[in-house]
């Protein structure tokens, strides 16, 4: 099911075949879209990393439970590590790297991703990538699936998501305004926050129904669109945006 969520925090539940822009309801004018930026893990690739296990390994069970209770929108593990001593940071990054390597070994492209990229290419819509994973993982993704995103930024680019700087950097590289770009990702606290803060359109990929109105209310983050499959993004774009070059 595809949902369109108002940029003024009004939520509409839509029928599967309907995707209506709030702008269209009043003016019939469609916003221009010239670029789409994707998250990688869990968006362009099938989620395989056990993040809860990784967080427990890095933080310890007691700290994990405490921080999870204090952070209902999710744990920002990289943020917590930044305040640690160099030795403790190194050990934490080694644990994270091990989990990420396991993810790379099992890497699978998300169903619908290649087709969506082909559609964007046919419309001459630019596509970029922002991930909190490492650049090496991006390179392997490009090589294995032969679907290239440019620019493609890993966590070596600082500050990383949810800071808007990576998305603003991509917009600048494209010479496109943020309000002509959409950020697509599966994380409310990272991807949607990044897109909102940059002034871009946002689309939340929620395959399992993880997020609901309470999550949007608590976080103060309301995606413009919500889909349960990447394969539904093409119809969403065609219905709600001017895709002419």
UniProtKB/TrEMBL annotation:
Pfam families assigned to the protein according to its UniProt record, in alphabetical order: Hydrolase
Superkingdom classification of source: Eukaryota
Recorded GO CC terms: chloroplast
InterPro entries associated with the record: HAD-SF_hydro_IA (IPR006439)
Protein known as: HAD-like superfamily
């Amino acid at each position: 099911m595809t949902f369109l969520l108002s940029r003024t925090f009004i939520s509409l539940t839509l029928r599967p075949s309907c995707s209506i822009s709030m702008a269209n309801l009043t003016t019939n004018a469609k916003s221009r879209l010239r670029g789409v930026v994707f998250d990688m893990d869990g968006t362009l690739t099938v989620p395989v990393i056990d993040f809860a296990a990784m967080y427990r390994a890095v933080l310890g069970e007691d700290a994990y439970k405490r921080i999870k209770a204090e952070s209902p929108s999710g744990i920002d593990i990289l943020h917590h590590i930044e305040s640690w001593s160099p030795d403790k940071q190194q050990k934490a990054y080694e644990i994270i790297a091990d989990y990420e390597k396991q993810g790379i070994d099992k890497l699978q492209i998300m169903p619908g991703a290649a087709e969506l990229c082909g559609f964007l290419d046919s419309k001459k819509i630019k596509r970029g990538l922002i991930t909190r994973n490492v650049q090496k993982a991006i390179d392997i993704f490009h090589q294995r699936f032969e679907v290239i995103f440019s620019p493609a930024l890993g966590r070596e680019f600082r500050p990383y998501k949810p800071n808007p700087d990576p998305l603003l950097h991509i917009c600048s590289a494209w010479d496109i305004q943020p309000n002509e770009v959409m950020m697509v990702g599966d994380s409310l606290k990272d991807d949607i926050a990044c897109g909102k803060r940059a002034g871009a359109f946002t689309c939340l990929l929620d395959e399992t129904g993880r997020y609901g109105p309470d999550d949007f209310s608590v976080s103060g983050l309301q995606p413009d669109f919500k889909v349960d499959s990447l394969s539904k993004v093409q119809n969403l774009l065609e219905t709600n945006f001017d895709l002419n070059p």
